[in-house]
Amino acid sequence: MSVVSSFQNIFKIEELKRRIFFTFSLLAVYRIGAHIPTPGIDGEQLSQFLNDRGGALMGFFDMFSGGALSRVTIFALGIMPYISASIILQLLTVVVPAIGKLAKEGEEGKKKIMKYTRYGTILISVIQSFGISVGLESMQGGAFIQSPGWGFRLLTVITLTSGTAFIMWLGEQITERGIGNGISLIIFAGIVARLPQALISTYQLLKAGELSIFLLLFIMALAVIVIGAIIYFERGQRKVPVQYAKRVVGRKVYGGQSTHIPLKVNTSGVIPPIFASSIIMFPASVASFIAVPWVQSMANQLSPGNALYTILFVGMIIFFCYFYTAIVFNPVDVADNLKKHGGFIPGIRPGKNTSEYLYRVLSRLTFVGAAYLSVVCVLPTFLIQEFNVPFYFGGTSLLIVVGVALDTVSQVESHLLTRSYDGLLRKGRVRGRR
């Protein structure tokens, strides 16, 4: 009953109820747009052809677009151009001093970086949509399009680029006026929307005798274990104890209390697998449309389940784990702030020694987090492909779904607690990934 009453409390807070309704409304708009076909394309025949030809690669792409790519709808590019632009801007904050300075200028700097990210999203969308239009003209002699030529190419570029820009706007509106992170929720909605069809396909195979009940139970048990591991690691943290020295000001004594610095096992959340996927997807998607044998072979090698893909994917996950953690947590700044306010870690000298200690602890935690992300993202996908399950819903999907759900529940619970209501879980507050 406590959980039921906690959900009832959500509807007692007018602002929270309005935010949740706004979020669901915009996600519904996104799902409707994912079924609007791009003008000049025979969507049904093309979808069948791409699914037969694309295999795991097409399924992996469709995971991020909610099935819009295989149908080549107005949202075919999904939110991936925005994610790619974000990757480029974050890398440039380290490489280019001027952009790195902007990142440290507070809210104004963030607004400028966001503006550059939007411009980059449009540029990447134009390039990718033009490549798709040219690729469609070359596939089966242009059998899937009505009027080949520059008119079709221009219309496709405008349509797909506008679709991505609209999705980007939806995500920003959800983040600002809704609940949760808008971009993450859009990816979440695309993944969850494919689950009913996956269940139907599985039932049909089970009914036809092509899938045994024991194999199905094994996959379900594996999914439960992976979800449990994700929740465990996403909520796991290392508490570094901090002691504040007592200060006497006049007749009053200040300080002397003990606290801790929470260092999460997975500080970067789902960012590394999403970033790694987007980087691998771009050359693989371009190569899949080029009718050259060695290029097609390379595209197949960059498909999920192949050795080259696995090596690149795991390597990029590890890189982005350390890269993103270094961006969001600076041990030197934390050590300086502790020293400035009279705080210290027991047994560690303030200043440089403290920063080195925090860096060492954070590096070890990040290694554990990177290993956990790599296993979760690669192992279930490998096992599912080995057993020929006819849908792509592997570790990356589960990681995104569970991680985004934890973040969203965390924000809902924060609204409840700030208004003196019980959280969704009475025994302990749900911690988000950031």
Notes on the protein architecture:
The structure is a single chain. By secondary structure, the protein is mostly helical. The protein has a single domain, classed as Preprotein translocase SecY subunit (Orthogonal Bundle), CATH 1.10.3370.10. 71% of the residues lie in helices and 5% in strands. A 3-stranded antiparallel β-sheet has the order 4-1-5. A two-stranded antiparallel ribbon has the order 2-3. Strand 2 and strand 3 form a beta hairpin.
Which ranges are low-confidence, i.e. pLDDT below 50, for 5 or more consecutive residues?
A: none
Q: Could you tell me the radius of gyration in angstroms?
A: 24 Å
Strands, count = 5
Structural class determined from secondary elements: mainly alpha
Number of helices: 18
Overall form = globular
Largest sheet: 3 strands, antiparallel
The tally of domains stands at: 1
The CATH class turns out to be Mainly Alpha
Order of helices and strands: HHHHHHHHHHHHEEEEHHHHEHH
Beta-strand portion reads: 5-15%
Per CATH, the superfamily is SecY subunit domain
Question: For the largest beta sheet, what order do the strands appear in spatially?
Answer: 4-1-5
CATH third-level topology: Preprotein translocase SecY subunit
Mean pLDDT: 79
Helix content, binned percent: over 70%
Q: Kindly, what is the distance between the CA atoms of the first and last residues, rounded to a whole number of angstroms?
A: 30 Å
CATH architectural arrangement: Orthogonal Bundle
